[in-house]
Amino acid sequence: MQSRLLALFACAIPLSQAAETVLGVYLFSRHGDRTAKSTPPANLTDLGYQEVFTSGTYYRDRYVSSSASSKIAGLNTDIVKLSQIAASAPLDNVLMSSAQGFLQGLYPPVGSTLGQETLRNDTVVHAPLDGYQLIPIQTVTSGTGSEDSAWLQGAGNCANAIVSSNNYYSSPEYKSMYDSTLDFYQSLVPVTNATFNSSQANFKNAYTIFDLLNVASIHNSSIPSSDLLTNSTLDQLRTLADNHEYNLGYNSSDSIRAIAGSTLAAQVVQALNTTITSAGKTAKFSIQFGAYASFQSFFGLANLTQVKPDFFGVPDYTSSMAFELFTTAAPTPFPAPEDLQIRFLFHNGTTSNSSTPTAYPLFCGNSLAMSWTDFTNGMNKFAIGSQTGWCKACGNSTGVCASADTSPSSGAKMGSSGGSSGPSKAVCGVIGALVTLVVILSIEALLWLFVVRPKRRRTNTSSEASVARENEGKLKVDGA
Asked: Which of 28, 272, 301, 440 has the fewest Cβ atoms within 10 Å of its own Cβ atom?
């Protein structure tokens, strides 16, 4: 127990960057504040635009600018070099717009001095919009339209993952939670009735009900029966939504349910491997915007929920996780693979200079940094990195999978590490068994919480503006 507490304490210790050189980064971010899913189409709000721009500005200060605290070696500071940056997002109003806003903060307009050129005839031409920089964003098919989908698993079209998630609805845990919270949801019908009537006000719609009321609490000046929406009620709604979405996105005994995290893991390894194989000439900084399902399923697969229970929850708007590729050896010539290390960082909510990411150990480890080999081996236990591997794991045989080889011998290899990308059982089996016990006990505790004491403590670690701070609260301990 003492060593466990020491490991958790170490996660909060500020990192020393002495003698380190960052060679590449993969960043995965959630979108900014948006309108509600239950009133599609969802759109990025002005507050959301401000949040992603603020986050982009922070990561500029961390990785890009000439005075950056963890400057990526060789990365252009003012004028973007497109071969060094890889940005991607699904074809989704909220996610694509968030990526654009983030990039504006990462590489802002260059101004009248850098944004001009002199022609042969001595004419000086100034770039439009004060030197606004045009950075292409690659469209990814996974998650397309996800912010208009009440259930993110359906946006992935992975047949086996959908079946797996549906199995949760027939589980004893779900049925107990549904029954024990029905009165709570029914008590909110005067608030939700315009969107969710009495027959829909239940745990099955836990996330969309929370989402509707969370958005309303941020943006609506007039809410029906608003006196029912106390801070305690909103906290309970969030906790139940955390429980609901985590169980739909991850299950330790059925890894295909976490398909979003498996594909993300493959993308991270592939992108950083490109940084290595190009000796740092390309793909120095990869940025992807995606939905919360990818966060939660990756948290489960990487055993982050065993490091801190906050990882059970749905990440707030503009949350981000970064994978830093770094070395303590001489950065030139480009270091050998055995001299490369990886660090994982996460921040819940909008990242800023006053609220920065924290490093956490991956895969049940006890160190905040790991070798490149250990990192790829760990990721490849659950990563799915090819169309063939995805089709095989998902059991899909139509559309893009119609011509895929899904025979038992087919599969995908990841980067240069050679690990299998097929789905696997969760690592840390002994700890996993203990977590299962804790999950069962936690369900019982939550049932008691709602029947006897419907009140819970809210923690805030972000220094957002007051309205965003009140409604973008930190990840909650999952009820499951």
From this structure: 440
